[in-house]
Design the sequence.
DNA sequence: GCACTATATAACTGTATAGTTATATAGTCA
DNA sequence: TGACTATATAACTATACAGTTATATAGTGC
């Protein structure tokens, strides 16, 4: 981080911004166990088709996901699994701190019911 | 990341959002070699005092920095060095990909002149 | 008390973007 | 070709927030 100039800082910031939306995290989460098409992601995430499509386009622009058309479907998959390292790091930090809510830790130890 | 419910996703997203501004990254960057007060950070980052103060308040809310008043000064320091791990991970990924600009890699290997 | 400095905050403006609805595009199959 | 499905996009609204200017707050020293 020490050798970052102005342009690089903006680029890094944009990368973080791509991860700074719950719906996009949800989509990335849904892609953890392999590629899925837009319909599947729409259903899994609970968003509208147009909205998910927009998020996927953005994620693809930042190379967080790879796009591949097959027939009338378009399949997306994680471009680089290290994105999950990022999330694990963040979850670890948040879990340690529990700043905004005292019981935030519960959120991370609870078994996944909502997605 | 697999055990995240809706609230946790929002929390993680907000955490990323805290890192999604160039000026805040600049401030965190300036704090790498130890605590600094608001005046110092204002000067180092090139922002206005009010603006830096706002960013610092936000960073403190997310426990990215710790605040400590001493006399009329307020000193801030990195709360958890693992935030730099995040940045390194992101820089590494961006460096590998060079997506938006072909010569983005130069940005990360160049010696720091701008900050 | 007053003057002075450091920091925080209030009020405001402009911009970016998430989400929606409606529509366009493109592939498949009859 | 035309009907059908899947995905993308255009146009719009509402909201969040970065940055600015002016002002408030709080600590120090006279």
Sequence:
């Amino acid at each position: 981080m020490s050798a970052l100039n102005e342009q690089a800082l903006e680029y890094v910031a944009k990368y973080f911004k791509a991860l700074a939306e719950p719906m996009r995290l949800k989509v990335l989460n849904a892609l953890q166990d392999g590629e899925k098409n837009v319909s599947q992601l729409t259903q899994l995430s609970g968003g509208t088709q147009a909205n998910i499509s927009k998020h996927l386009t953005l994620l693809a622009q930042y190379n967080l996901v790879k796009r591949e058309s097959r027939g009338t479907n378009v399949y997306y998959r994680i471009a680089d699994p290290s994105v999950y390292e990022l999330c694990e790091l963040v979850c670890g930090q948040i879990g340690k701190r529990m700043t905004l809510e005292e019981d935030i830790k519960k959120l991370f130890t609870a078994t996944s019911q909502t997605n």
In short: Chain B has a mean pLDDT of 83. Chain B is about 55% helix and 10% strand.
